[in-house]
Amino acid sequence: MHDFKLDKKGEYVLIDIYITERYAHLVGNNSRFWNASGIQLNLDTSGVDIQTGTIATMLNGGIEFITPDLNHKKIKHHSVYRLYSSHSDAEESGVGHYKQDNDNKIIQITCTQLGSLTIGSKLYYKKIPVGEIVDYRLNTKNDTIIISAAIKDKYQHLVKSNSRFWRNSGLKIKAGLSGVDVNMAPVHSLLNGGISFANIVPSAEQAKHDSVLYNLYVDQQQALMKVVQIQIKFALAKGVTAGTAINYLGIQVGEVTRVELSENNQAIIAHAKLWNSATEFARQGSQFWLVSAKVGLFKSEHLDTLIKGNYLQIEPGQGQKTNILQVN
User: Fold this and answer.
1) Neighbour tally for 60: CB within 10 Å
2) Which pTM value belongs to this model?
């Protein structure tokens, strides 16, 4: 920092900065500068963001900058730049301006909410950082967000056409009768958000990064779960709503996601999911029936549904695979 003064209107402070000749090539027209003085702590619903400079800047103040693309023309003297209040603000200003490094490959991931993810959030494979988010934009066609992530050259072979991505930000604790399961994301993800991925079938072909749009799942369980979508036709769907469980031998193997009228308005269509090994039940001949509580003077049945709610019982068929099934 060489000098500072007010502009002619007295609205802004102009800081004169001298860049030595040997480092002048690092400054370009897309460089972004931010105040690196002290410690900045941002706490909101998405998490905690802690940003610190070096010991020298913490004690004496300072300015840092980044130039996303060094292939630029030489800048003129007295070029004017905006000074951002923090590193994150400077990063946000550059959304949409990232240019690909020759050593990195870009993949795209779609989600409905950005949450705690931001530029610089890491991508992990088996908890090893293999890349980071470099850009994101709003897809106005379907109101989703498309995240661009750069994968380091030596890890590109890990991304397959069937790779599954999920959020791993934060600390998850699952308590049950069998004990407590604690799943902690890497420290960087706890503070800045992060994404993990895995491959369903290890032998799958390597993805063509510019042609695959991956989905971002809520958590690892959903990401790695084998799922098949089915439609169940009802003459009358009384007692069947979104969230109704599908059970087999007393175990939930799927659920109804939504209910609607058929095209001719003569039947009810329940859209549902079958999970994991139960995906094999999507066959001709599989039957469904609604189980609900029956209360009588001498006999009562299925009283547990008064608490847990009605559910669909499935009887697997032996026919050909199909996604259109019939209720009994």
Assistant:
1) 10
2) 0.49
